[in-house]
């Protein structure tokens, strides 16, 4: 029965990873760039929620609502300033720019908030620790269920927007061929900026959930980026539901590894990722990228 | 090696050697001789500082070989730095003399890059960047789980105490210089060979290069293994210079940040640029290393600035303005009997972009 519990924990952890990964996947899908500062942006979101809820003494679930529009605006600005310029420089420049940005963010956070780790869990009251005990060994943590539900809602919402709205059609058209889309009157710059704003908002949400479930510090972003990327690749590129699936596989792998020995948690996830990369499926992903 | 195809009727020929490059080869030779006698003339501290400068030169050169010539942005070269260092520890534990162990450590990194290439080399762009990062992170975890290597708390290099400090620093310096000359010499040879042109074609457009019959994967593999060897050598020499390593620091992603900074500031895709970048980084490190986080914020911001505004670095300014290419890597059109003044419009320097 402990293994059932491990499985449940893994699936719920997977929800957080999927939430973290969908922004990365969206930006890659629309602009063909991988934002190496994505994990650090999630951590900035976590700090924003933590800082506002400790300063004003209100629930993090409310301050998330303040943080989201702020971070969206920040994402929009990021795109129209740094990223749009870097996109014109070829394949390498966006990677170099976002990596430099990641270094700046990590060290700025360290300068502003000290290297200490924090958690938002205390500010949420009992929600962070509450759980439904089904049997003696199997329990479902409330926050895990919330994060999984959020992941399904966000991914489903994104899918719906992409499928049915005018903005979604513009985004898909720009992803397919920005020049032809421009001929049809679609402003690629605006589409990119909105996509980045959405990606940053989802990262903020994921960062806040992560900060409630566990601890975070100025340099947590690197591992967040790696987990997000692993979820995207395991799930197969370009599919949002695949990302959810990938996040769950990664979460379960980490939960199983961590159950054997806490030191094995991250290792188990990395190994599953590397096996997927080396498999025929990984080859198909590489071919997809080369397209 | 000069590959000259003369076209006598027009008075032009294609060549790679110019007067500047001939002079600079002479200067390089003199500098190398001067560098070689450094331990005989300077004090211990200067020798140690110059060793770290040479380590930066190796790292920048290797990262540039991957990104500047192969189009592969690696965020995981620290994996090979760590392998070189821990490979050295592995061999000294088995009774191999330390300096031989450092060479073996670098070779270990190169050997392990072959199986790892199966996983990451097919990836492109950001996929490759994060793929290599995951590999490096996994190696770090595996090493820190091994109690033979001192686990997460780190381990020391033993066996160097048979030498007194001056001799030890001298030998470490000479081995680092040897590694630097070897890996930079190998990349120069590679760039001057037929494959050098193919590599630049891959960097500019992998698909187009493949359609022209360039075999992309084998060439990328050569660069990947060379870079693994160079970074492994750098890792072994970092260990020799500091005598103590911890998995978190030797496998730390800050090495990639340093490499990207050096190559971007110096000049991505130029042979001379990374050396310039390493010199600048060495100076900054020497002046501001105590600046803590603000220093790192500055490094990141400068890297972003160069990526956006001057992606081919400071050296590209020198190369474009003065039309000099110190080391003969590209081809240029030369007017017969007037080698010293090549026409500005017909330079054969590597394509920009």
- Terminal CA distance of chain A: 46 Å
Order of strands in the sheet with most strands of chain B: 1-2-5
Overall spatial form of chain B: globular
How many β strands of chain B by DSSP? Answer: 5
What does the main sheet of chain A amount to? 2 strands, antiparallel
Q: Looking at the structure, what is the overall shape of chain A?
A: globular
Query: What is the domain tally of chain A?
Result: 1
Quote the beta fraction of chain B. Answer: under 5%
- What number is the mean pLDDT of chain A? 89
In which range does the helix fraction of chain B lie? Answer: 55-70%
Q: What is shown here, in short?
A:
By secondary structure, chain A is mostly helical. Chain A has helices at residues 2-31, 38-56, 60-87, 92-113, 142-164, 166-176, 178-183, 188-213, 221-235, 240-260, 264-278, 280-290; strands spanning 131-133, 139-141. In chain A, β1 and β2 form a beta hairpin.
Topology of this protein?
The complex is a heterodimer of chains A (291) and B (353).
Chain A: H1 2-31, H2 38-56, H3 60-87, H4 92-113, E1 131-133, E2 139-141, H5 142-164, H6 166-176, H7 178-183, H8 188-213, H9 221-235, H10 240-260, H11 264-278, H12 280-290
Antiparallel strand pairs in A: 1-2
Helix pairs in contact in A: 1-5, 1-8, 1-9, 1-10, 2-3, 2-4, 2-8, 2-9, 3-4, 3-8, 5-6, 5-8, 6-8, 9-10, 9-11, 10-11, 11-12
Chain B: E1 5-7, E2 12-15, H1 19-36, H2 38-41, H3 44-70, H4 77-93, H5 98-120, H6 125-145, E3 155-156, H7 165-192, H8 194-204, H9 206-211, H10 216-242, E4 244-245, H11 247-250, H12 254-266, H13 273-288, H14 293-309, H15 313-322, E5 332-335
Antiparallel strand pairs in B: 1-2, 2-5, 3-4
């Amino acid at each position: 029965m402990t293994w059932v519990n491990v499985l449940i924990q893994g699936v719920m952890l997977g929800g957080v990873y999927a939430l973290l990964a969908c922004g990365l996947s969206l930006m890659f899908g629309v602009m063909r760039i991988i934002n190496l500062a994505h994990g650090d942006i999630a951590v900035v979101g976590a700090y924003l929620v933590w800082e506002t809820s400790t300063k004003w003494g209100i629930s993090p679930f409310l301050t998330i609502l303040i943080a989201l529009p702020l971070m969206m605006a920040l994402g929009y600005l990021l795109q129209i300033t740094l990223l749009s310029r870097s996109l014109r420089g070829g394949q390498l420049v966006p990677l170099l720019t976002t990596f430099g940005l990641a270094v700046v963010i990590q060290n700025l956070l360290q300068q502003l908030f000290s290297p200490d780790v924090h958690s938002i869990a205390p500010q949420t009251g009992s929600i962070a620790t509450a759980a439904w005990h089904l049997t003696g060994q199997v329990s479902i943590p409330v926050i895990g269920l919330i994060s999984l539900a959020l992941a399904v809602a966000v991914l489903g919402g994104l899918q719906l927007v992409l499928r049915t709205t005018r903005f979604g059609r513009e985004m898909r058209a720009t992803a397919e061929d920005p020049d032809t889309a421009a001929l049809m009157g679609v402003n690629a710059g605006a589409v990119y900026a909105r996509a980045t704003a959405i990606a940053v908002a989802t990262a903020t949400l994921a960062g806040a959930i992560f900060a409630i479930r566990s601890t975070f510090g100025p340099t947590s972003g690197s591992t967040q980026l790696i987990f997000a990327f692993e979820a995207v690749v395991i799930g197969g590129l370009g599919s949002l539901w695949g990302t959810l699936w990938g996040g769950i596989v990664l979460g379960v792998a980490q939960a199983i590894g961590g159950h054997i020995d806490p030191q094995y948690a991250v290792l188990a996830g990395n190994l599953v990722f590397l096996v997927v990369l080396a498999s025929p499926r990984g080859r198909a992903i590489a071919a997809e990228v080369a397209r | 090696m000069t590959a000259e195809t003369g076209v006598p009727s027009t008075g032009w020929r294609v060549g790679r050697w110019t007067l500047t490059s001939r002079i600079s080869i002479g200067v390089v030779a003199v500098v190398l001789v001067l560098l070689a006698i450094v331990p005989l003339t300077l004090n211990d501290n200067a020798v140690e500082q110059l060793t770290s400068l040479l380590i930066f030169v190796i790292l920048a050169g290797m990262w540039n070989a991957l990104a500047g010539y192969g189009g592969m942005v690696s965020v995981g070269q620290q994996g090979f730095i760590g392998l070189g260092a821990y490979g050295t520890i592995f061999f000294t534990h088995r009774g191999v003399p330390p300096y031989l162990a450092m060479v073996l450590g670098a070779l270990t990194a190169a050997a392990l890059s072959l199986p790892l290439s199966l996983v990451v080399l097919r990836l492109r762009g950001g996929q490759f960047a994060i793929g290599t990062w995951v590999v490096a992170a996994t190696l770090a975890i595996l090493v820190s789980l091994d109690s033979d290597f001192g686990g997460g708390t780190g381990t020391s290099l033993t066996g160097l105490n048979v030498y007194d400090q001056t001799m030890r620093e001298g030998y470490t310096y000479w081995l680092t210089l040897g590694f630097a000359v070897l890996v930079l010499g190998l990349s120069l040879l590679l760039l001057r060979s037929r494959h050098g042109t193919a590599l630049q074609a891959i960097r500019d457009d992998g698909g187009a290069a493949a359609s022209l019959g360039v075999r992309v994967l084998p060439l990328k593999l050569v660069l990947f293994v060379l870079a693994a060897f160079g970074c492994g050598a750098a890792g072994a020499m970092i260990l020799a210079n500091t005598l103590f390593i911890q998995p978190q620091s030797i496998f730390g992603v800050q090495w990639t940040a340093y490499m990207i900074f050096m190559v971007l500031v110096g000049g991505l895709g130029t042979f001379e640029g990374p050396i310039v970048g390493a010199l600048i980084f060495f100076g900054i490190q020497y002046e501001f290393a105590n600046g803590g986080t603000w220093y790192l914020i500055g490094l990141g911001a400068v890297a972003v600035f160069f990526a956006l505004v001057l992606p081919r670095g400071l050296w590209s300014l020198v190369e474009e303005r003065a039309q000099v290419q110190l080391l003969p890597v590209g081809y240029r059109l030369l007017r017969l009997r007037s080698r010293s003044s090549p026409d500005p419009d017909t330079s054969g320097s590597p394509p920009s972009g």
